Amino acid sequence: MDIREVVAAERRDQAELLSNLTQQQWEAPSLCAGWRVKEVIAHTTLPYRSSTGRILREMLKARGNFNRASDRMARKDAEQLSTHDLLDSLKANIHHPWTPPGGGPVGALSHDVIHGLDVTVALNLDRKVPLERLRLVFDAMRPGHLKYFGVDLEGKRLEATDMDWTLGEGTPIRDEAQNLLLLVCGRDLH
Question: What are the recorded GO MF terms, alphabetically (predicted)?
Fold first, then answer.
């Protein structure tokens, strides 16, 4: 399996889905706390539109805090760019080789899948991430990911109902794999 092609397929699927959103949906809250759909897409397309210099300047302003810098850039870009601009950026970069630091191509897939779910689940859209993509994301997970998202699964066992995947020990929590991925990433689904 060519992971770069899987990443491209995910981006292509998202571009098609986003092409059909109304302006009201672009302005709606996502599962990313404090971000509308527009900020999420500004964030996911940031690597295609921003220079290393801009990112470094923002990191300095944020005193090295990537989340703070990322938030500032997503908000600024969502304010300055139209939904058309953001969608065009995604479409033009379906095959972009960007990967998150230390994440490789599977990290890029994880980034796109998780933020895609932040949009589709928040908007209650009927999109299921293909299970083979979720399998790649789950297989790449490490204990540090849970720590990064501040998720405490002590005494809980996550069990996917649509694929063979479990995580943890204890009281079972059963749901579709994509919902469990959001749970692992600290998203509130209620």
Answer: metal ion binding
| Residue 179 CA neighbour count, 13 Å, CB half | 12
Count the domains in the chain: 2
Q: Answer yes or no: do 128 and 152 share one domain.
A: no
Identify the CA nearest to 83 among candidates 28, 160, 138, 156: 28
Three-state DSSP state, 26: helix
- What's the CATH number where 112 sits? 1.20.120
- Please indicate, yes or no, whether residues 27 and 111 belong to a single structural domain of this protein: yes
- For β-strands 171-175 and 156-160, DSSP reports them as parallel
State pTM to two decimals: 0.94
Task: Give the dihedral of Cα atoms 184, 153, 101, 13; nearest 10 deg.
Answer: -10
83/10 same-domain check: yes
